[in-house]
Structure formats: structure tokens, C-alpha cells
Amino acid sequence: MNTVHGNTQGLKASQLDALKRLYRRRVPPSEVVTAELARTLCELSRELGRQIAVLIDRKGDVRFVILGNDRRIQFPDLSAHRVGHRRLRGLRCVHTHLREEPLNDDDLTDLAGLRLDLMAAIGVGPDGLPRRIHMAHVQPGADTGGPNRLPPVDVHHNDLVFDVFIDELEARLSRAPSGRDVKDPRERAILVSVSTETRDQAEDSLAELAALAHANELLVVDQVLQRPRRIDPRYLMGRGKLEELTVRAMQLEADVILFDQELSPSQMEAVAAATELKVIDRTQLILDIFARRAHSADGKVQVELAQQRYRLPRLGARQSALSRLTGGIGGRGPGETRLEIDLRRARDRIRRLEKQLDGLARGRAERRKRRLGRDVPIVSVVGYTNAGKSTLLNALTQSDTVAEDRLFATLDTATRRLRFPAEREILITDTVGFIRRLPPDLVKAFQATLDELADADLLLHVVDISHPQFEEQIRAVNIILTDLGLAHIPQLMVLNKVDRVDVDTAWALCRRFEAVAVSAIDRGTFPPLMHALEARLWGMGHDVGGIGGDPWPES
Q: Into how many domains does the chain fold?
């Protein structure tokens, strides 16, 4: 279909027909552009006062005709002409410049970002005839300083043998050193944050995103932070910044663009179309991590339910790839669109998972009822992810729940018995770690598990005081507890990783937060915590904070 891309409103029928006839032109594979095609482009461009471009494939056929404005052209969707990491697109752009200017930054960005074979600009003379042609091509390697500009030449004396040139360029690109480690199978990700927060807040959140990416076995190759005055509703980031990101992704051979913010379905689709890369956001990344880490039946069902709820509204973004089938009455059976079928299946799956989760919840409720009937105090360990909750639980109870130095190492609830002298004991429960902007679908799916916190007599709020943003993490945890309706349950704050800060700082923080400080890897620091638990649960002794000395004696 001979479509003229760009804004064609206001054109005469004859002018539109002239543009469509450009599709009939054919260029010999050895030439960049014929003198006749160059003259026609310049005459039309002069008449319309706008740039005109043709995208030509390696056979010499015109595949796209684009009408721009007087300064630049806007490329259509080229996704049908896919490229690999080290391949060119197989299309060259030949367009006009009304003031005979050389290639500009927009031209070079489009060249690199779209991975074109060649970018060429023909200067339009005052008489509407073609003058010099400026050309540039991408260079092998990610650190070559950008595209290579060729010396401008007269259109009629362009000696570049294009088919030979492009074969040699492809060969050089395939031999060029690559930033990819063939022994490293991980996908390469560029992290992106587009935020109106302060720079410190945005940088801290981006650092946390990098830790999440590592937890999901992604290799972070670059980070991009933009703090615009206004968020772009289509791409989240500005169009210029998106073009820079596209070029950077090409140079670093990135596979994934990972946003720190949650993207709408339309934003995700728009950025994916512009970069031609996989695009995921913070929410999807967290869901993927949970899917990897869930082991229990409860955990697996909860995570899949959260994933299905997240994906449901995003199915609509795929409408352009779906087509209506024939037949059927009332929009069902063979007459459904592919989208409608996918939506119906997703809703059915959500209903089945909800029923399954209800059944599992009843089993949990029975177990909770038996625990409550024993009249044994229940303490739930809460806190920010990777604060050291599981390590502390293991050390207190001499158990072996999963404890790793990475985000969301623990997803499945674990309950252990902790004995005190005088024949007292408590049940202590580890829970999933919290994080800022925890996906609402995930909170909803894990609601049944988090409901167990409501049975606790005391919440042990574990904080990593070695983290530079630990106060922000405390606030984030308290916000989530409030949202869950658990703010009324008494808290004992435990400042963990005291071995990583100086003693004076630890004492000052204990006094400020009325907390106890421990190192979960050193049981010698536990006595103040044990005394504080006795004071809170049974009113024994004094509820004093501080840093421990001798280990708690074995019972």
C-alpha cells in the first residue's frame, strides 16, 4: 500500500499523487540514489516547503515515503524490518534539506537509533535542484564516538558503490569487539528513572531498582535518571531523552529497558515500539522476582494471581496484533476477537486462583486457630526487604529458614518456637519483606498471608541501620502496616547490622527510636532484645534498649 507517512493535510491531490508515485522509483543496488530521484525529491520539497524522505531497501525499492516539516522528518513504525544486536536494518534514508545544511543531531540520532544502513541529506538549491549530498553511517563498536560522517559530494558525482560499501560495513560490524560476554547468559538491562522527586530520593530508588534487577538475574549495563518539570504522558520521558536512550541501548547491546516507575499499558507499548526492546517496569520486575522465589502452594498461587491481575489491563495494548475471526453470533465462539478470548481466559484463570486461594486460606485459618488456642504469645517479624529478618529468626531459634543477602529472599511464611527461661516460650513468625511502592496487586494477593500479622501480640520491626536510607525504609514499612490496618499492634524496633556502624551512632539511634540494637550474625548482641521481649510480653524486668554483651544462656 503506497502510504505517504507524515502530515499530508492541506496537500493538493496532484501533490499527494506525486508523492505516491515515488514508490514506483527503483534505485540500482550499487547507487545510494539516482540523479533523477534526487531531482524529483528536491523539486517536490521546494514546492511544498517541507523535507521529504524515502527509505530504500537493498534491492533498490522505495519502501517508505515520508513528508516532514521544514526542519525534520518523523519516522513511521519500522518494526516490520527487525534488526539483531549486530545487524543493520536494511534500509537507507535519503531526504532533503531545504537550506542545504549538513546532517544535524536529529539525523544522526535517527541513524544510530533506528540502525539504518545510511543517512543521506540532499541540499535543495534556490532553483529547486539538488546540490551536495551529506552522508553518515554507524561505526563498529560502542565507544567509537558516534556515527561516521562522509565528506559531502555533488549528487551527480557520488562515487560511493553502495552494495559493496554495505557488505563491508556489515562485515566490520560482525567482527567488532562486543561488550557482551558470551559466557554470561543474563539479559542486559538499562535502568531508567523519570521522577519529580529530589535527586537523592530518585538516586536511592534507582539503586534499589538495581538491587531488584540483580535479584532477578539481570545484568545492569547503564542507568539513566531524568527529572523533568513535566512527565510526558506518552513516553514518560521526553522524546529527545528517549532517542538518546535508544542510541545508548544499541551501543551497549541492551536487551531490556527497565523503568523504576509503573508504566501504563499505552506507555509500555509506545516505548517498546520506539526502542524495539523489551520494556518492563518496577511492578513487573517485583512480580517476576516473587514468581522465581515462591515455593509453597500458598506462595505460588498468590504470585500467579498478582501476575494475572497485573497483566489483565495490559492485554488491550496488544490489539494491533490481533484480528477478528469470521462467524459466530453475539460476539462469542468463533466470532470473538483474539483479544476477547485472551481477556476471557485471563478472567477465568483469576477466578480459579481466587477460589484456590480461599481454600488454602481456610487451612491457614485452622492452623492459626490451633496456635491461638495454646495461649502462647505470637511475635511477627516485619521490616524492609533484606533488613536481616530471616537471619535474625534463624539465630534466635537456631533454625535454618532461607536467608540470603538479596531482596525478597523470603516469600513463604515460617513460624518457629523461641524458648525463654522460666519455661516460657513464644511463636515467632517471619514474613515477606516490604518495599516502597509495593505493587497493589501483590499486596492484595498476599492479603491472606499478611492477615496473620493481625494475630500477633507484638511486631518485631527489623531495620538495617547500615543502609543510608534506613529512615525512609522505616516510614515505608509503617505506611504499609497502616494500610493493612495493623498500626494498632505494639511494635519493638530492632536495629540490625549494628556491627556496621560505630557504637556512639548505635546508642544514639537506640535512644531516638526506643529500640534495641543487634547484629543478627552475632548472638552476643541478643540479651537486650530478649529482655525487651520479656518486658513487652510478660511485664518482666525493664524494657530497656541498648547493645548487648554476653550471649543469652541456653534454656
A: 4
CB 268 within 8 A of CB 285: no
Rounded distance, CA 45 to CA 95, Å? 9
Nearest Cα to Cα of residue 363 among 246, 428, 421, 448: 448
Phi, psi of 493 (to 5 degrees): -85, 130
Residue 336 sits in the same domain as residue 382: no
| Structure confidence by residue, pLDDT tens digits, 461-487 | 999 999 988 999 999 999 988 988 889
- The pLDDT-based confidence of 322 (bands split at 50, 70, 90) is very low
Domain that holds residue 212: 188-289
247 with 393, same domain? no
Give per-residue pLDDT as tens, 88-103. 889 999 999 999 999 9
- Tell me if 183 is assigned to some domain: no
The amino acid at 147: P
Exposed/middle/buried for residue 375 (C-beta within 10 Å: 0-12, 13-18, 19+): exposed
pTM score: 0.73
Residue 301: CB partners within 8 Å, gap ≥ 6?
353, 356, 357, 360
How far apart are the C-alpha atoms of 326 and 308, rounded to whole Å?
Answer: 28
Has residue 225 been placed in a domain?
Answer: yes
**Which residue, 530, 500, 553, 536, is CA-closest to 392?**
530
Terminal C-alpha separation, the chain: 83
Answer for the pair 545, 533: CB distance below 8 angstroms, yes or no.
no
Convert 323-340 into a string of H (helix), E (strand) and C (coil): CECCCCCCCCHHHCEHHH
Between β-strands 52-57 and 62-67, what pairing exists: parallel, antiparallel or unpaired? Answer: antiparallel
Cell of 467: 543502609
Mind giving me the DSSP string for 17-42?
A: HHHHGGGG-B--TT-SS-HHHHHHHH
